[in-house]
Sequence to fold (288 residues):
Amino acid sequence: MKFSIITPSFNQLPYLKRCVASVSDQQGVDIEHIVIDGGSTDGTAAWLKESAEKLSAGRYHLTFVSEVDEGMYDALNKGFDQASGDVYAWLNCDEQYLPGALQGVARGFRGHPASDLIYGDALLVATDGHLLTYRKNPPLRRAYVLADHLYTQSASMFFRSRIFDSGLRFNAAWKAVGDCDFIERVLKAGFRSLQIREELSACSMTGDNLSHAWDGVEELKEFRRRVPRLYWASRTGLNLLRFLEKGLRGGYWHFAPFEYDLYLDGSNVRRKVAAKRVSCRFKWSAHG
Fold:
């Protein structure tokens, strides 16, 4: 099974290094890693050229483009147009895969051939790697997304290529909530999702994450204004159902202590991080 991983990039070289390392060290699968850089001025293109020559060996192959684009979703569309794998995903610079993530996803797809989309859990971490929250997701349902927002983390979502072969792409007019719009359309088209209870990725909360920025908040408001009124009118009830499903699946607790391995501070090896307490809740307001 071949994975095509797309990473949009713009002047985030320190985080990009961690991201690439976390993809290149995945075992047991073939990986096509395509970085679409928006014309960075921080040395990204030179580093990518060197890394493509150094890291592309065996089952991992890194390619890149560095040119001005129209934003993250335009970059992702460019990447997916180039992709040739069986499974597609995107991983932003401030995100990284946890060890064994892609093998777990491959097992899920092999065991459930009718599933089009697999998603798992994610860790939200501070820039120094310490755990902020363990995000365990409820079932991915279109009604829940329309009633509020995309509550699953894109770094822990994986798609069979047939979704993109159908012609679905991101709406590049969005600058921050295009993933929410894209997933809603994937589910509306009838593609089937499967949840696996494994932590697959870690997302660094840098304070500059697009969905948290002012533009992201305003775009989410605009997305909600476009939602059919039935879902908005039922928002309270649908959110209660989502919270209930999450609770029934153990989504609000996790055993401690808990350990995980991340790339940190330019290190070329993963470092073990230990969390003595594990929270499964997160509030944006606590981080800017």
About this structure: Residues 2-287 form a domain with the Spore Coat Polysaccharide Biosynthesis Protein SpsA; Chain A fold (CATH 3.90.550.10). The chain has a mean pLDDT of 91. Residues 155 and 272 are 20 Å apart (CA to CA).
